[in-house]
Amino acid sequence: MKRVFNFSAGPAVMPEEVLRQAQEEMLDWHGIGMSIMEVSHRGPEFQSVLEQAEADLREVLKVPSNYHVLFVPGGASTQFAMVPLNLLSETNKEADYIETGLWSQKAVQEAKRYGVINVAAQTKLHEGLYSLPLQHEWRLNPKAAYVHYTPNETVGGIEFHWVPKIPGIPLVADMTSSIMSKPIDVTQFGVIYAGSQKNVGQAGITIVIIRDDLVRDPLWHTPMLYRYKTHAEHHSCYNTPPTYAIYMSGLVLAWIKQQGGLTVLEERNKRKAKKLYDCIDEHGDFYFSNVVPECRAMMNVVFWLRREELTKEFLTQAAQAGLMNLRGHRIAGGCRASIYNAMPEAGVDRLVEFMEDFAKRCS
Ligand code: PMP
Known about the structure:
Layout: E1 5-6, H1 16-25, H2 44-61, E2 67-73, H3 76-87, E3 94-99, H4 102-111, E4 116-122, E5 124-126, E6 129-131, E7 147-149, E8 152-153, E9 158-159, E10 171-174, E11 191-195, E12 205-211, H5 228-233, H6 243-259, H7 262-282, E13 287-288, E14 300-305, H8 311-320, E15 323-324, E16 335-338, H9 345-362
Parallel strand pairs: 1-15, 3-4, 3-7, 7-10, 10-11
Antiparallel strand pairs: 2-12, 5-6, 8-9, 11-12, 13-14, 14-16
């Protein structure tokens, strides 16, 4: 058997311990003689998996009791519609969006189907470097039903390292590529959502953490499965949820606890990201980042080769060295190393070594 270092942006590397546990439990989960994927979502076995996953998520993220934790089928893109459908109302269809990259752009486009969307701020480009708009530059609408932003843009590798403070207006955050990378204060948000396939398991579900008062009647035409109320009232089991995806998330959450929680993971993540960005900056004549240092993403390190024509060779040789999936997003180009929780520090060390060696050989 061989395992490589997988820098995929998502679906992404899983903790090896989690894959082994899933393998061990595949044919006979906890002595029941069946896989957990073979049993009813309403039966005691799966219900215990769901309850434990929620309890662990609440513990790891310190989710207060006035927030629901929902496991919603579909990807984070489903939330691009669910957020406006549920948070806009017949009397207020205005919302603010902060547009900082591909994913927030998609969120804006979807929201425009349902409401009057104000793009209150956008990424800035100065002398070839991208940066995020500071809060005093946001042109917020005081009547907005909510403000939506993307703390980490997975494609551009650009991250807010601060949380906006907007008194009286719910803040909605698409944390798909940053959830579980560090501790957060959930009370600063009205809604947090995150597709599971990066830091919380396999693809198939989206975790939604939503404050009680925001679980309310949606726009009248909202389908049952797009209503937060449906998922809250039926404890994420209105219909048959992707049970195996929830089981895998449960294993990852238990792994996070066993690693020592988010403070420990944050330290490790910061160290991993610093090693890569240091390597890029120290070899600035060969590699470069197009994001200002204070906005660089911890989970998705985007970089470019100054001689762009060498990118293909760089990726080929990296793959030969067991460093896989370093190609940048198909729209953005360049290179991207996604270094989620499950990427061991040794993988980053190997990548740094390879990058240094490649730069030396090609300079
Ligand atoms: N938001 C962000 C920040 C993402 O990174 C992604 C996926 N890469 C999405 C939304 C869309 O997620 P999905 O493909 O699960 O719909």
